[in-house]
Structure formats: structure tokens, C-alpha cells
Amino acid sequence: TWGMAVAKDLHKLMKKVCAAQNRANILMKGGFIDQDRLNNVLDGASDNDLTNIKIHITREIFEAILVNPGINNLLDRLDVPADRMDLFDLLDADKSGGLALPELLYGLLKVRGEAQQTDILSGVLSGRATLDLVKQQRDCVETIRRMIEDAHNIRPETSSHIPYNQIVDV
Q1: Residue 98, by phi and psi: left (phi above 0), alpha (psi -120 to 50) or beta?
Q2: Which of 64, 110, 117, 140 has its CA at a distance of 20 to 30 angstroms from the CA of residue 160?
Q3: Helix, strand, coil content of the chain in percent (nearest 5)
Q4: Using a CB cutoff of 8 Å and minimum separation of 24, what contacts does 72-81 make?
Q5: pLDDT tens per residue across span 1-59
């Protein structure tokens, strides 16, 4: 079935990506990734390459494997959009500079296929909700600013001493 084909392609892709990252030190030649070595590593990927679940894929390795025709074939079959050079930034959800396996896997599943109207609407609604939160925070900051300003304007001869914790809710 279609779902099984996607799962198999994702499994192959994860093995190859992990194999490349696991052998990053041998792929370097003169400060650059040697494509011939990379192609050999990708061809020899196995399930053993998936044993380190805490692996983080670097931008350098990720972008190097995007040059490989076999990787591009897998990404095509997974219906990942053809514009892939900015894919790392899109998938790096936590902006750590590396892709954890779950981040890579879930990210690839989310970018599959063409954007549907519901995807676009979801983005618009999410943007509006974020804007509403920002406005609420702005209003809260403005209220706190006014409270502090009012507290500084209290004249000692017309008021008794007001403890700080009564001016600002601690």
C-alpha cells in the first residue's frame, strides 16, 4: 500500500542520513565533504546506522547528501518539494543548528505534497492567534508601566508609605 511505501522510503532515507552523519569524519577531505566517499557511505547504509537515536544531523552533512541522486529520488518519492536547499532551516524546528531524528522525520512528513487550502488557512489562523497574544502582552506591559509610573508619582506628604509588594503583585 501507499503508506507502507512511504514508511519504507523514510526508513531508507533515515539510514542513509544517519550513515553519513556517523561517518562525517571520514567524509572530509581538505575541509570539504568528498562526494565519492559520501556516495559510498550512502550506498552502504544499514540498520546499524540507526542505533544512535540521539544523533544530530549537521547542516553540512544534510546539504551534502541533497546532491546525491539516490537521496533526491527518495525525497521525490516521498513527495518532498523540489526546492530543497532551504529545507534544513525549515526542518530545524528548535533552531539548534542540528536535526534530531524525530525533528527530521516529523518535519519531512509535514512538508510532503503541495500546500492545501486548509494548510494555508491554518497558517493564517495561527498567525492571527500569535498576533492576539502579542497584543495582550503589549497591553499587560503598558499596564505595568503605568502602575510603576503612578507609584513614582505618589507624593510623600499626601500619602503614607506603601510597601513595594503592594504596588507590584509579587
Answers
A1: beta
A2: 140
A3: 65, 5, 30
A4: 74/9, 74/12, 74/13, 74/16, 75/13, 77/5, 77/9, 78/6, 78/9, 78/10, 78/13, 78/108, 78/112, 79/112, 79/113, 80/108, 80/111, 80/112, 81/111, 81/114
A5: 667 888 899 999 999 999 999 888 778 777 788 888 888 899 999 989 888 878 899 99
